[in-house]
């Protein structure tokens, strides 16, 4: 039975901990994994732009001995030419796995149903699981543990927030999600994270007040406007500016580190000076994208 990676929501805490451990092992001993994808080809299909995800999958697959075929939004445009199910079934004729960044989570579900090879979510409107794995790997490296830490996410409740909630809950990380009113996370995903958290001992909360981040170990920021959201910045800037992650907020909360999945918008959701400061983990997160994804690929497709 092939396994897909669309959300992590159906994983057990034990499976999640093992995957995090595998990512560390692959990072520390890459030579041991240089042939796990030997002779295998992965199609990476992107409906939206990408720097980190595209390059880290391409180079990462190469390091595992495999080969990646990139299809961009022009070549791989799904809408209009043929149905998503037919695209996926065709790709599975040649490819051993499909990595896909799509607008709608339902497209991924169609891919997963139609393709007899593993499908990996490289970001959709609702989740960004590869990002969350890299982020918790980064926190593990910074603290030597994830369980019992407190992560405060501040900004728009979005795909990145949802995956941080799910993966963090599985790993026992306390989380507080702080958003402006009307920008909260999906209530069903929040409840799912709380349900997982009851088993792992994590405390998962929401607030509209940035002071709720006081005492957090790490503050996490993401763009106020995700790809595919055409709202003009001017329409939301005043609402979000009090949620900017800056030096004053770091001091107020006492957090040691700041994280951001990138692309970052300097002096909007996070100050440029904070990105450039010693407390920023952004480049460690970016580097760990590849190690986390290589663990996923090894788990789903490894020989
Ligand atoms: N963090 C992230 O997914 O970056 P890209 O959009 O550049 O892939
Ligand atoms: N929430 C952002 C993440 C980018 C990596 C977006 O979806 O655009």
TrEMBL record:
Query: Where does the Aspartate/ornithine carbamoyltransferase Asp/Orn-binding domain lie?
Result: 147-299
Per UniProt, what is one GO molecular function of this protein?
ornithine carbamoyltransferase activity
Query: Where does the Aspartate/ornithine carbamoyltransferase carbamoyl-P binding domain start and stop, copy by copy?
Result: 4-141
Asked whether the keyword Transferase is assigned, the reply is yes
Keyword Transferase found: yes
Which Gene3D superfamilies does UniProt cross-reference here? Aspartate/ornithine carbamoyltransferase (3.40.50.1370)
Keyword terms, alphabetized: Transferase
What EC identifiers does the entry list?
A: 2.1.3.3
Q: Which family does it belong to?
A: Belongs to the aspartate/ornithine carbamoyltransferase superfamily.
Give the protein name, as stated in the record: Ornithine carbamoyltransferase
Protein's organism: Salinimonas profundi
């Amino acid at each position: 039975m092939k396994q897909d990676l669309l959300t992590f929501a159906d994983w057990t805490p034990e499976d999640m901990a093992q995957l995090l451990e595998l990512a560390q092992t692959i990072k520390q001993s890459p030579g041991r994994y240089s042939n796990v994808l030997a002779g295998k080809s992965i199609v990476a299909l992107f409906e939206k732009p990408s720097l980190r995800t595209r390059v880290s999958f391409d180079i990462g697959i190469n390091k595992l001995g495999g080969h990646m075929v990139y299809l961009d939004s022009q070549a791989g445009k799904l809408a209009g030419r043929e149905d998503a199910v037919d695209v996926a079934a065709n790709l599975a004729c040649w490819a051993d796995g499909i990595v896909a960044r799509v607008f709608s989570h339902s497209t991924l579900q169609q891919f997963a149903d139609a393709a007899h090879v593993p499908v990996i979510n490289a970001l959709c409107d609702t989740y960004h699981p590869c990002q969350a794995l890299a982020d918790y790997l980064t926190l593990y490296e910074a603290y030597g543990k994830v369980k019992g830490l407190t992560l405060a996410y501040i900004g728009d409740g979005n795909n990145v927030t949802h995956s941080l909630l799910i993966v963090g809950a599985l790993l026992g990380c306390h989380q507080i999600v702080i958003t402006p009113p009307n920008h909260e996370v999906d209530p069903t995903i929040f409840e799912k994270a709380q349900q997982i958290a009851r088993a792992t001992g994590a405390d998962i909360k929401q607030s509209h007040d940035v002071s709720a981040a006081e005492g957090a170990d790490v503050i996490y920021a993401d763009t106020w406007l995700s790809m595919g959201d055409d709202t003009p910045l001017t329409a939301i800037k005043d609402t979000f500016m009090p949620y900017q992650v800056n030096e004053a907020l770091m001091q107020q909360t006492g957090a040691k580190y700041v994280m951001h999945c990138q692309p970052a918008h300097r002096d909007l959701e996070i100050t440029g000076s904070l990105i450039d400061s010693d407390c920023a983990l952004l480049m460690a997160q970016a580097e760990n994208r590849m190690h986390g994804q290589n663990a996923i690929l090894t788990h789903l497709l490894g020989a």
